[in-house]
Design goal:
It is built from 5 helices and 15 strands. By secondary structure, it is of the alpha+beta class. The longest helix is centred in the first third of the chain and has 23 residues, at 82-104. It has helices at 7-22, 32-36, 48-56, 82-104, 119-131; strands spanning 29-30, 68-69, 146-153, 162-163, 166-167, 169-175, 180-187, 200-210, 214-219, 226-228, 243-255, 258-264, 270-278, 282-288, 297-303.
Length: 306
């Protein structure tokens, strides 16, 4: 037996489908199998009116499959994937923490004159930003390369941009391909990075390589076996993913770009750099003499202009 519809009847049916599906509840009933083989929205099958109407246009003797209970909202079609929501939330939190850090650094002179009551807040905010880092291998990220301006550090001179009673700008320049690194200090400079036309400069030249996790302060119990972060029995941790070993070579002091003298460092003078946060514009490093957490100094930096 065949059922025939007029054009007017078809339009009425379409209107009924649209109105009935508009009132579908969030926890609707629908047939998953049938929804996968028809062009109609799957949530429409939850509506009794639609179910009755749809049976009229099925071939004779055909019935929609038995419905099963699913939790579904029509708005789910327009919702972004959970991963993108989480990433957006993380990015918003990062920007919020950065704004708080910027406020907290006011009147600290890049860490050289931080009030004792202000330092705990700054370090708490920096730790919060570190905890938001999504990178598993920041030390291998190509964004490490280039120049970085120190905005805050609790390190002593000259790492904090101070040379004697003179205060300037501390800048780190990293060459990823060549495995080289420079720590530059500029006094009396101008420009966006305050390094242009500086009348006094100090440049530390060094190289870097991935750290193997061995402490830099001697051996373990005097038995000739170097002590590592995880103990002498562990060698399966990839320390190089987050940390570099930086070896100092020379320090050159220049006046009006004319070198005054160059000091060579004792062979093996090294430091560890733990990359605890990195994005396009911001970087946090914890640098120390041994690799032990207790002797680390923290550096909060922005990407340099030049």
């Amino acid at each position: 037996m065949t059922t025939r519809f007029s054009i007017t009847g078809a339009l009425i049916l379409v209107a009924a489908i649209g109105v009935s599906s508009a009132f579908t509840t969030p926890n609707a009933l629908y047939s998953r199998n049938f929804a996968q083989t028809t062009p109609f929205p799957r949530h429409a099958f939850a509506n009794p009116t639609f179910s009755r109407n749809i049976s009229l246009i099925l071939p004779s003797g055909t019935h929609p499959p038995k419905t099963r209970i699913y939790s579904f909202s029509p708005f789910d079609w327009f919702a972004p994937p959970k991963e993108s929501v989480d990433a957006k939330t993380n990015d918003e939190e990062i920007q919020n923490v950065k704004a708080q850090i910027e406020d907290a650094l006011v009147n600290t002179d890049r860490g050289r004159s931080t009030p004792p009551t202000q330092k705990p807040l700054i370090h708490t905010l920096l730790a919060r930003l570190e905890s938001l880092s999504p990178l598993a291998e920041p030390a291998r990220d190509p964004r490490m390369g280039g120049s970085w301006i120190v905005l805050y550090t609790d390190a002593p001179p000259p790492s904090n941009g101070q040379l004697g009673f003179l205060k300037g700008i501390a800048k780190q320049v990293i060459d990823l391909e060549g495995g080289r690194y420079k720590n530059e200090l500029y006094i009396g400079g101008k420009g966006g990075d305050e390094d242009e036309g500086a009348w006094l400069t100090a440049v530390l030249d060094a190289d870097w390589k991935e750290w193997d996790g061995m402490y830099l302060d001697g051996d373990d119990d005097g038995d000739g076996v170097m002590e590592s972060v995880s103990g002498s029995g562990r060698n399966d941790i990839d320390y190089g993913a987050t940390t570099w070993k930086v070896t100092f070579e020379s320090l050159t002091l220049s006046l009006f770009r004319v070198p005054l003298f160059t000091q060579k460092f004792k062979e093996g003078t090294s430091r560890t750099w733990k990359m605890t946060y990195l994005d396009d514009e911001t970087r946090i490093v914890r640098a120390g003499k041994t690799g032990r957490d207790e002797d680390d100094w923290i550096f909060y930096m922005r990407r340099g202009i030049s």
